[in-house]
Amino acid sequence: MRGARVRPAAATALCAVLGLALLTGCANLAPDFERPPAPLPSAWSRTGSTPTDTTAAADIDWRAFILDERLRQVVQMSLQNNRDLRVAVLNIERARALHRIERSASLPELGAQASRSQQRSPSSASAGAQGSTSTLYSVELELSRYEIDFFGRIRNLGDAALETFFAVQENRRALQISLVADVCSAWLVLAADRAHLQLARDTLASQQASHELTRRTHDLGGTSGLVLAQAQTTVDSARIEVARLSAQVTLDRHALDLLVGAALADALLPGPGTTGSAANADRAASLLVSVPAGLPSELLQRRPDVLAAEHLLRAANADIGAARAALFPSISLTGAAGTQSRSLAGLFSARSLAWNFVPQIDLPIFDSGRRQANLHVSEAQQAIEVARYEAALQVAFREVADALGEREWLAERLAAQTSLTEATARVHALSTASFRKGAVSYLDVLDAQRSLYAAQQNSITLRLVEQVNRIALYRALGGGWNERDATGIPR
Q1: For the chain, which terminal residue's Cβ has fewer other Cβ atoms within 10 angstroms, N or C?
Q2: Are 27 and 287 in contact (CB under 8 A)?
Q3: C-alpha distances in angstroms, 220 versus 208, 225, 312, 396?
Q4: Domains of the chain and any CATH numbers
């Protein structure tokens, strides 16, 4: 850089231009954002049964939703150890860094440089008979190429990165809610299968005792070999069922350990009676999150996946603004100010000041339609994000409506199943007593045993379905979560 003496007028003009550059960004060519209307019905179900509780599911923390202390501890472990959730947290950090990169483009980039250069000229290029050596010291404060954001291109790029960051944050929330629901469901499935296993073991013990009694009676000539063989089939069937359910319980525990991200202690596992008794089913009734009154569109727009879709739609809006701004001229500034001297002692003297200032304007004239095509791409992406947003709302509505539709008949199914199980138990008791008196054949007893076992199994399964339905409804409504769970990242 050639040295030049600073003139007051020039320095004033430079400061004015730099000040104007810091305050620019007058125009914003991005379209005004309008949330698309929710393409949803006005009620959850056609039955017209709308709960009156106005507590939103998103406001209920999962710890308040789960009553069992063991399950609370299991969920907490999953939030700390699950690898998918860790990846989601790291994605948030990455999106935050990308936003900082885009935002930094809106501010000038300044740098300082100090140098010492030497140059020797040969005698053939010097005025004297001998060559000459020159030394130049310089200290400069440089302004890198800085674009004045007259039409909001840089601002919109920063806004798009910010909205993308918000979307990633909502995706992490959605993943956490799904993880809580999946862990709860897996824990309850394990509890139900352990209840099934306990029922099969109890049935096997009963069948073995009945077979032993039948064998003794056969040895005394009191019953036929056919009855003894039939009793043996019930024992073998029960043994097969115990072996099958034992394997299933093992697989359930492996699935739960994978979700949690660590091997669970036996003390944190559910007991066989967690979902198998009416008392526990009554206790679990308080786990249900009541559906808030009001329009579904108002409620579902709090779901993390719906919010993430909205943020991506906002980002697409900002991308349109950036693409539109690229069609207009851009002005960039480059400059430097500092001191230069042939001697180190004179580097900071008044006569050593030097500066340069290079404004540059970029006029788009012909680019074969590239910038216009970029605008069309941004507009098409916005239309895609609108469709995705509406689809997310519709999926959310269906999930809630399905959970409510199933819940509407679960109470009736549970009551009927309880009555059926009790009636089947009476049939089994009466058929057994009648067989001992010789009034019925052993086939009647076997049929009653199979019916009772099936009814008891169905009772356990239906209670599991009822509790999983509570979890599905809680999840579909956006769930509740703790802002500091496993991440430390505020909402």
Answers
A1: C
A2: no
A3: 19, 12, 82, 68
A4: 1-29+108-148+329-363 (2.20.200.10), 31-106+151-327+372-476 (1.20.1600.10)
Residue 305 and residue 174 in contact, taking contact as beta carbons nearer than 8 Å: yes
Task: Tell me the two tokens of residue 116.
Answer: 């010492």
pLDDT tens-digit series, residues 93-152:
999 898 888 888 777 888 888 887 877 777 665 555 566 777 887 888 887 777 888 888
The Cα 204–Cα 241 span in angstroms is 9
How many CB atoms sit inside 10 A of residue 419's CB?
A: 11
Sheet holding 132-148, edge to edge: 110-121, 132-148, 330-341, 353-362
On whether the CB atoms of residues 353 and 140 are closer than 8 A, the answer is no
- The separation between the first and the last C-alpha atoms of the chain, rounded to the nearest angstrom, is 50
What is the rounded CA–CA span in Å between residue 382 and residue 379? Answer: 5
- Which one, of 92, 221, 115, lies nearest residue 164 by Cα? 92
Other residues' Cβ atoms within 10 Å of the Cβ of residue 263: 9
The per-residue DSSP string of 268-309 comes to GSPPTTTTTSHHHHHHHGGGPPPPPSS-HHHHHTTSHHHHHH
CA 476 to chain CA centroid, Å, is 13
357-386 per-position pLDDT tens digit: 888 888 888 888 899 999 999 999 999 999
Whole-number Å distance between alpha carbons of 308 and 174: 9
